[in-house]
Amino acid sequence: MLRPASALPPFQLANNARRRRALISLTPLIDVVFILLVFFMLTSTFLDWRPIELNAPGPTAASAEAGDSLLIEIRTDGLRLDDEPVTPAELRRRIESQLAHHPDQRVRLKPTAGVALQRTVDVVGLLTRAGAVNLSLIRDRQR
């Protein structure tokens, strides 16, 4: 049975026009931004990159000045200062005391086979913090 047109509800076009746009919550967006901020803060490195200046002497200069210099061997099992085993702290203390008496003291570093480059760089950093400025690296000719 059909209802007459007057019995139907009126057309509600006005209600659709009043509907507001859906609000987008900003909370998830802010959460993502903070997570990215924390991620980049934690993965960034805050190392102090300082260049280490090394002067490469000629092949004859090393043998001429070897007599009055300190020899530090960097071995896989530890450090040696003039064939005497030392700890890094003791090495620094001894270098500082030596440089207090002879500021131009020459220090030669000899990394042995199997020593990581980072370990050598750490020892160079230790020596520069101790005040050594006249450093030389000795390369093993057999390698």
Automatic annotation (TrEMBL):
GO terms for molecular function: transmembrane transporter activity. It is a single-pass membrane protein; Single-pass type II membrane protein. It is found in: Cell membrane. InterPro entries: ExbD. Keywords: Cell membrane, Membrane, Protein transport, Transmembrane, Transmembrane helix, Transport. PANTHER family: BIOPOLYMER TRANSPORT PROTEIN EXBD-RELATED, EXBD MEMBRANE COMPONENT OF PMF-DRIVEN MACROMOLECULE IMPORT SYSTEM. This is Biopolymer transport protein. It comes from Thiohalobacter thiocyanaticus. The lineage of its organism: Bacteria, Pseudomonadati, Pseudomonadota, Gammaproteobacteria, Thiohalobacterales.
